[in-house]
Write a structure and sequence with these properties.
single chain; about 400 residues; alpha+beta; Nucleotidyltransferase, domain 5; 2 domains; seven-stranded antiparallel sheet; five-stranded mixed sheet
Length: about 400
């Protein structure tokens, strides 16, 4: 299996000054390579500049500017150029598919927060001793940085990435050949229905509350954003108060993200420990949170018909606050490590199908919470009915696979 480990770095005062310089120099390399591609795109050929050509220029760039570019790892600079190459590959793919292209943009110092070292031992060295306060990671140009390693690293370290989040620095290790840790066999199987009123409802009828972390922090976040909005947006040099206001907004968002991840990990672990098979809906969160397309009024040019955009915005905010995609990804990873089975089923009509007689009708869903079959008058909680139907469809999928 492939797994990632994320640990907090504890740099010294001098290292804390050098780490932002490393990010800034890699950001400068990214923007310079992007400018070269833009010029070639406009004046010569769309594909005249490639990753291979730009990577071949690194030796000259490092020799020309040894104080900024020459002191960092050659491999990490190649990884930065590959990052730009992937951005252009995605741009051309979207153009070919007729989607919104999204031409690659220049990165500001606040939006370039990761440097990747493609191979352990090439410009970086992970020195791991489980639960040892002397654990270090060595980075070329910076030295040995102390790591708060809160759990052992298993498997073989393939890539090492240094990431900035606010004022904190993290090291992210990507490892392969991570051994599985199967849990004892459990006879129970379960279906889960994701929702907004409840975070999820199980086929056993249990409701897990939706914590709504973003809504709870909405007032504090709005106040911090209003304070940040009082500063001019386009200034060459930000003031100390401006930077402090921006850090406060970022700190609130980071806290919400950590709370959401913590809740997802604990809920997924609870399900994996007690159930051998877990079934859930195959959700398309990106499609569910799309902004409604404007509807022009055919009788009045320049006027648009109501499309409930404001109501949809509130629903989208609630869906994204719940974090379905993050939770299901964590659930799948934990189940794989524990030797459990996770099945994603078709979500269509799961809350409109009667689990008692199989009748499917829109009228069966009386309200958001109430289900009443129009054929057999079976009554139950609508989310519980959805979880039961998800479990039934998973059983059919298992039978077909067998």
């Amino acid at each position: 299996m492939i797994r990632a480990y994320k640990f907090l770095l504890r740099p010294t005062a001098r290292q804390a000054q050098t780490l932002p310089e490393m990010l800034a120099d890699h950001c400068s390399l990214y923007n310079g390579a992007l400018q070269e591609r833009r010029d070639a795109y406009q004046h010569t050929s769309k594909t005249s500049i490639t990753y291979g050509g730009q990577s071949a220029q690194l030796k000259e760039i490092r020799a020309f500017d040894p104080e900024r570019q020459g002191r960092w790892s050659f491999s990490s600079q190649q990884a930065t150029l590959r990052r730009l190459d992937r951005a252009f590959a995605a741009f051309f793919r979207r153009v070919k598919n007729g989607a919104t292209p999204g031409y690659p943009r220049f990165k500001g110092t606040g939006h370039f927060d990761t440097v990747v070292f493609p191979r352990d031992g090439d410009g970086c060295r992970w020195n791991s001793t489980p639960h040892d306060p002397q654990t270090r990671v060595r980075l070329q140009g910076i030295g040995h940085i102390r790591v708060h390693q809160h759990r052992p690293v298993k498997g073989r370290v393939k890539t090492v990435a240094v990431k900035r989040e606010g004022r904190r620095w993290y090291v992210v290790l990507s490892c392969d050949n991570v051994p599985a840790e199967p849990l004892p066999h459990a006879d129970a199987v379960i279906g889960i229905d994701m929702g907004i009123t409840h975070f999820l409802t199980t086929s056993d009828g249990e409701h897990i509350a939706n914590p709504r972390f973003l809504r709870k922090a909405a007032e504090e976040l709005a106040e911090a954003q209003r304070h940040l909005a009082t500063f001019p947006k386009h200034t060459k040099q930000r003031t100390k108060k401006h930077r402090a206001a921006a850090r406060k907004v970022a700190r609130i968002h980071a806290r919400i993200r950590r709370q959401r991840l913590d809740h997802a990990h604990k809920t997924a672990l609870m399900l994996v420990r007690d159930h051998e098979v877990i079934a859930h809906e195959r959700l398309n969160t990106a499609g569910m949170t799309k902004v409604p397309v404007p509807k022009p009024d055919p009788e009045q040019p320049g006027v648009f018909l109501p499309n409930q955009r404001a109501a949809k915005a509130g629903l989208n905010r609630s869906i994204l606050d719940t974090g379905w995609g993050v939770f299901l990804a964590i659930l799948t990873n934990k189940a794989e490590s524990a030797g459990r089975t996770v099945i994603a089923v078709d979500p269509r009509n799961t809350s409109r199908t009667c689990p008692n007689c199989g009748h499917v009708a829109k009228e069966n869903r009386v309200t958001q919470a109430k289900f009443e079959c129009a054929a057999c008058r079976f009554t139950a909680n609508a989310d519980h009915v959805g979880a039961l139907n998800i479990l039934n469809r998973a059983g059919l999928a298992l039978c077909d696979a067998a």
